[in-house]
Write a structure and sequence with these properties.
6-stranded parallel sheet, globular, 8 strands, 14% strand, 13 helices, alpha/beta, two-stranded antiparallel sheet
Length: 262
């Protein structure tokens, strides 16, 4: 098991990390060995019994709440708050409350949004998650987004709903399912919620090695309890995240190599 004593990986530099990885995985050809401790991240992924994925701009190619906002004609107003949250410039719970207060999404409006604008999986993520399942690794979706938008994705990816940690929008019992707030008790509804969620996952599952994969500042916060943080820049590159990642990748191909390596 690898050390998880700090929120970022100790710096090894791209070149030094590359030499160590090449000696550990001589048969693999990596396109990217950028990160603060690439060897730790790759070894953690190779041995992980649990891998947790952020959803927005990682598993999918957009921010779900921005897709919903666009469908309701409030895209610009909401995307400004999303950017603040992802860059770590405001507390997540403040950004979440502000965006939902702007949108007030009914259940029927969310369902119509998903019909009109199906969320698009990022290239390679379906194969990566399938390969993790094939080798017996448990996969979790840990998101500051909404269960009602993520659960359909989880079904496609064969991730049980019990392994989805996300926010729950509350709705009235009326024909439209009018917006009634959100469950503030969900760990992902507030700042430092992802490390709390991963702590719960790790304790309940008894996992030895856990990896977090994501694009945002809230994902970088999840180490510890994650043993390694893999930053993903395939949709959007965030410098603050890039500088904290143990391993930073622009696509999922190198991760697939590690998982499928015999």
């Amino acid at each position: 098991m690898f050390s998880s004593s700090s929120a970022t990986c100790s710096s090894s530099g791209e070149e030094g990390g590359g030499n160590l990885v090449s000696s550990s995985f001589p048969s693999l050809k990596f396109s990217s060995l950028e990160g603060q401790d690439v060897e730790v991240a790759i070894k953690a992924l190779a041995n992980a019994d649990a891998v947790c994925f952020d959803v927005d701009s990682t598993v999918i190619q957009e921010e779900g709440i921005d897709v919903l906002a666009d469908s309701l004609g409030k895209g610009e107003e909401v995307s400004a708050w999303t950017l603040k949250a992802m860059e770590g410039n405001t507390k997540f719970e403040d950004a979440l409350a502000a965006r939902l207060d702007i949108l007030k999404p009914s259940l029927s409006s969310i369902e119509q949004c998903l019909i009109n604008h199906p969320l698009q999986l990022s290239p390679g993520v379906e194969r990566l998650i399938h390969s993790l399942h094939e080798r017996g690794t448990h996969v979790y979706l840990v998101s500051g987004g909404f269960r009602c938008m993520i659960n359909p994705l989880a079904k496609v990816l064969n991730v049980p709903e019990s392994r989805v940690y996300a926010n729950h929008i509350l709705h009235e019992d009326d024909p439209e399912g009018s917006y009634a707030g959100f469950d503030a008790d969900e760990p992902t509804s507030r700042d430092m919620g992802k490390p709390k969620a991963l702590g719960i996952i790790k304790e309940k599952g008894g996992y030895n090695t856990m990896v977090m994969v994501g694009d945002g500042a809230t994902d970088a916060q999840a180490k510890p309890p994650a043993d390694a943080f893999v930053g993903y820049g395939g949709v959007v590159v965030r410098d603050a995240v890039r500088n904290k990642a143990c391993w930073y990748v622009m696509d999922f191909e190198d991760m697939i190599q590690v998982v499928e390596h015999k």
